[in-house]
Design goal:
With 293 residues, the chain is mainly alpha-helical. Helices cover 60% and strands 7% of the residues. Strands 1-2 form a two-stranded antiparallel sheet. It has a two-stranded antiparallel sheet with strand order 3-4. It holds the Pfam family RDD.
């Protein structure tokens, strides 16, 4: 199924996409806007520059005794930073660099496959070709004669890579297109609209006291999410009490006097849905509580 196959024109313009898993879970994907991506990249560049400045200060004392060695180490640090900064962070659990985390966006696989190391490497290798090499080349050549024409061609080359996300509806840069990735807004643990709009404001506010740990949320999978959703829709008090008791026992939750079973179940549903959506963006789908992925 196409990522945007069932969306309206307005939804496509707003950057919303559907990813329906084989289990029937509809992931509401919202693409990161261009401003967020530029902001994240700028933050990461600033971090890299600060690290290089700090390295330069640290090596300044060494340069007094062995200037060539200090320069070699500095160049090596710059190379490693430029080559592996983005790749290592995006291969992590959050699939995001510090800049992306601050802008609340992350890298995700476009299809149903897992976000792999190969995909992350490919998207960042294209950044090297499309941004860092042309920028380095421009700073290293003159501005007259033949060099001026070369500078113009390199500028056009870099411009094509930089402006590419503005000319496709999924805001993909060339690296995303090759690697099968896209950059999306980080998912939030949100209840389905029809399960939350009927609640009183004080019930919604009560969600804040339920701070489930990742281990507690990971006790269940997609199958149990559907069952829990059916229970919440049915609104049978006896059933909700029974299910809430089972979940509390399973996850080791300490029941507090006056704690509403319905509020507990809605809070756990929100946390479980958010956790599963976050994992599915990385290509990890836990079918049920017996699936240990």
């Amino acid at each position: 199924m196409s990522a945007a196959g069932s969306l309206s024109v307005d939804q496509i313009k707003l950057g919303r996409r559907h990813l329906v898993t084989p289990e029937g879970v509809d992931l509401q994907i919202e693409l990161a806007d261009v401003g967020s991506r530029i902001g994240a990249f700028a933050i990461d560049l600033i971090i890299m520059i600060v690290v290089l400045i700090a390295a330069g200060f640290g090596l300044s004392s060494m340069s007094i005794y062995n200037g060539e060695l200090a320069f070699t180490i500095f160049v090596l640090i710059a190379f490693l930073l430029r080559s592996f900064y983005f790749t290592l962070f995006e291969m992590g659990r959050r699939a995001a660099t510090p800049g992306k985390m601050l802008m609340k966006i992350r890298v995700a696989a476009r299809g149903k496959a897992r976000l792999s190391a190969a995909s992350v490497f490919a998207r960042n290798a294209l950044r090297e070709i499309g941004f860092f090499l042309p920028i380095g080349f421009l700073f290293g050549i003159g501005q007259g004669g033949v060099d001026g024409w070369i500078s113009l061609l390199v500028s056009i080359w870099a411009g094509i890579f930089l402006m590419f996300p503005l000319f496709n509806r999924d805001r993909l840069r060339v690296g995303d297109l090759v690697a099968g990735t896209w950059v999306v807004k980080s998912p939030r643990p949100i209840l389905a609209a029809d399960l939350i709009t009927t609640d009183a404001p004080e019930v919604e506010a009560a969600f804040a006291k339920f701070a489930f740990t990742p281990a507690q949320i990971d006790m269940y999978g997609i199958k149990e999410l559907h069952v829990l959703e059916d229970v919440l829709r049915a609104r049978d008090r006896e059933v909700m009490t029974d299910v809430a008791t089972r979940i509390r026992t399973k996850i080791g939750w300490t029941w507090e006097e006056g704690e509403s079973d319905a509020t507990f179940l809605r809070a756990y549903y929100a946390a479980l849905r958010g956790r599963l959506e976050s994992k599915m963006l990385m290509g990890v789908r836990r079918k049920d509580k017996f699936d240990r992925r």
